[in-house]
């Protein structure tokens, strides 16, 4: 199984840089190797507000989310439904 390292949000001002196993890729997904990523104001607000932010799930403490959505990278693999 492949692993990755990412900054994950567990709650208000609780960010952790972690290495973890990647789940198996589904048919409607891509796998990208991130070259660079930046945090925008909305990501900063999510980190500061945690589960109080409208886009952060209530169970973020047990199911952390990856912070950052403005990135550049290389596509490594493409799911079956994405190949067309």
Q: Numbering strands along the chain, what is their spatial order in the largest sheet?
A: 2-1-4
Low-pLDDT runs: none
Indicate how many domains the architecture comprises: 1
How far is the first residue's CA from the last residue's CA? 26 Å
CATH fold call = Quinone Oxidoreductase, Chain A, domain 1
The CATH architecture: Alpha-Beta Complex
Q: Note the main sheet.
A: 3 strands, antiparallel
- What is the CA-based Rg, rounded? 14 Å
Tell the overall outline.
globular
Instruction: Give the structural class.
Output: mainly beta
Q: What is the typical, i.e. mean, pLDDT?
A: 93
Question: How would you summarize this macromolecular structure in one to three sentences?
Answer:
The protein has 84 residues and is mostly beta strands. Helices cover 11% and strands 44% of the residues. Strand 1 (3-11) and strand 2 form a beta hairpin.
Q: Could you walk me through the main structural features you see in this protein, from its secondary elements to its overall organization?
A:
The protein has a single domain, classed as Alpha-Beta Complex (Quinone Oxidoreductase, Chain A, domain 1). The longest helix has 9 residues, at 41-49. The protein is globular and about 40 Å long. Helices cover 11% and strands 44% of the residues. With 84 residues, it is mainly beta. It has one helix at 41-49, and strands spanning 3-11, 14-21, 30-38, 65-66, 70-78. A 3-stranded antiparallel sheet has the order 2-1-4, covered by helices on one side. It has a two-stranded antiparallel sheet with strand order 3-5. Strand 1 and strand 2 (14-21) form a beta hairpin. The mean pLDDT is 93.
């Amino acid at each position: 199984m492949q692993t990755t390292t990412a900054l994950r949000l567990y709650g208000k001002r609780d960010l952790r840089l972690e290495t973890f196993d990647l789940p198996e890729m589904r048919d409607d997904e891509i796998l990208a190797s991130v070259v660079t990523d930046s945090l925008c104001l909305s990501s900063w607000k999510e980190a500061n507000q945690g589960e109080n932010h409208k886009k952060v799930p209530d169970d973020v403490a047990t199911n952390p989310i990856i912070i950052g959505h403005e990135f550049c990278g290389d596509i490594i693999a493409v799911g079956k439904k994405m190949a067309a």
